[in-house]
Design a protein that fits this description.
Elements lengths: L5 H15 L5 H10 L5 H12 L6 E3 H10 L6 H11 L6 E3 H8 L5 H14 L6 E2 L1 H5 L8 H4 L5 H12 L9 E2 H12 L5 H12 L2
Antiparallel strand pairs: 1-2, 3-4
Length: about 210
């Protein structure tokens, strides 16, 4: 059975909503607003920015930034948006790099947590090329237990692809999951889990490490 994190997701969303009332840091507030939508919340904001980024420059000016926030239904007043933008526009160029933005928005994690996430990644990356693909999963999981496979809706590859899509960046679902994408996903889950010990136990159980 492939690991599900729906319960952690719910816990994280509830906790993020609770913490929102306690913080005045604009970046932390934006992070919590994303996490209140679940561990893919930060990824979802990335997708909204991707759509804004017409010229594929992977940078956003202030107007695009605000439009992306609005399209993602993030209720943020102009002053707060300006403050966040200034924090990310380190060189004062009037644009922000949105990969850097998403990495900074990602909740910080201890080394112990990063290490166990990497252990899971290495286990999944059977071919050891630094990317998890359908090929890797074929050697690890039996798709035949999946309900959608059993009722004939999905092929084995579609089961694996849906699994990979959980971790994949929303703006380039290419059926390949990089270390960065895997880390981003688990940073979201990690935000709802208070202690390293519990996070590590959860990961060990989920991935049989």
């Amino acid at each position: 059975q492939m690991p599900g994190t729906a319960r952690h997701d719910r816990e994280m969303a509830i906790q993020a909503k609770r913490n929102l009332s306690k913080t005045t840091d604009p970046v932390e507030r934006l992070r919590l607003k994303c996490l209140a939508r679940g561990s893919a919340g930060i990824k979802g904001l990335g997708k909204a920015f991707q759509i804004m980024d017409d010229d594929n420059s992977r940078t956003l000016d202030f107007k695009e930034f605000v439009k992306g926030l609005n399209d993602y239904a993030m209720m943020i007043d102009k002053e707060e948006a300006q403050e966040i933008f200034r924090i990310f526009d380190k060189d004062g160029s009037g644009t922000i790099d949105f990969d850097e933005f998403l990495v900074t928005l990602r909740p910080p994690m201890s080394n112990a947590r990063k290490e166990i996430i990497m252990q899971a990644f290495r286990k999944l990356d059977k071919t050891g090329d630094g990317v998890i693909t359908i090929e890797d999963l074929r050697g690890l999981y039996n798709a035949k237990h999946h309900p959608k496979y059993q009722n004939g809706d999905w092929t084995e590859d579609q089961v694996f692809r849906a699994f990979l899509d959980n971790f994949d960046s929303p703006y380039d679902k290419d059926g390949k999951v990089t270390t960065e994408e895997f880390m981003n996903y688990y940073a979201g889950v990690s935000a709802s889990i208070d202690t390293d010990v519990y996070f590590i136990i959860m990961m060990k159980n989920a991935w049989k490490l």
